[in-house]
Predict the 3D structure of the following.
Amino acid sequence: MDVYKRLAKKLDELPQGFPSTDTGVELRILQIIFSPEDAEMALQMTPAPETAEQVAARLSKPVEETRAMLDQMAEKGQIGSLSIGGQQVYRLIPFVIGIFEFQRKERLTKELAELIEEYGPHLMKVTGGHAPHIARVIPVNAAIPTDLQVLQQDDIRQIINNAKSFRVQDCICRKEKNLLGDPCKHSIHNCIQYSMEENAFDYFNPEGEIITREEALQILEKNSQEGLVHTTYNIMNVPGGFLCSCCSCSCAMIRALKEFKAPYMIAKSNYMAHIDEDACIACGICRDERCPMDAIANEDGEFRVLKERCIGCGVCIITCPSKALSLIERPVHERDPIATDVTEWGKMRMENRMHDEQKTQSVPK
Ligand code: SF4
Ligand code: SF4
């Protein structure tokens, strides 16, 4: 068990965190995902990407043996593997967003799904309990009025147009719910990974398919029609990563906001919904079928947006039959902050975690 305790501590030292519990459920999760040998190797990895040659030199091991071990660990979703500047690199990744999302194919068993469901509320509460936010909502493009100037972090087309490689895989949250016998109605094969590097997934693509930019845009369009919320990392210059399509029934991030009261899981977009009362025909579609955040209220037949609950996703806008709904810009002082890059995000988050933890410790019991 010692190796799993050390690995849990190491994962908790990453900005995202991997909090301990009284029950030790997090250690049981690690035991399923990592063999003791793999856990020892993960303990040797750094969050900064390294080539197999660099890892081998650091650990005084043969290069090919190290590469084979790293490839196997990446295949098992224990570490990250990506292509940077044409070189395959490996790195320690957080539990979320990272190890959990990479438990592909048959590695996500019913037993693991049950343990993650048990750990989820605690994990989400702590992970989403410290600023800055982990992920960020990107509004449905078609919902943004054409006369508004859209910032890059709010423009899904710009993010996709800047990226150079794409792949699609099953959504891990819906897979988990399926295994638990509580499937939701939404599509499952729509979780997109993107990279600013050419051919980023050619060397390592253990699940899903490599797709073109046009196919990625088609999947996102279909996801919008389904009422799914686009989210990606809460960073201005995203080097790549997941582009999730979230629902409130299965998605850990939206569930974190609604069920687990974790305010820093997802940042709102810079927009919010607005209803033109004169145009609204009170059909209720926006409230009853579309909004994942319960952000639309029916007050004696008058529909109203609850701006403190609205995350600015825009999924209510595109199906309003009378075009009464639109996205408007959120006042600057109400917007959620966004970090410039991964380094700034990690630094801000570690500072806030330490500050929040010190505050909790200094509260007299
Ligand atoms: S979908 Fe449009 S018309 Fe229907 S209640 Fe909502 S705002 Fe009104
Ligand atoms: S009202 Fe609901 S669906 Fe519409 S933008 Fe806000 S959170 Fe999204």
Summary: The domain at 270-331 is CATH 3.30.70.20 (Alpha-Beta Plaits). The mean pLDDT is 90. Residues 273, 290-291, 293, 295-296, 305, 310-316 surround iron/sulfur cluster (ligand 2) (CB under 6 Å). The longest strand covers residues 240-246.
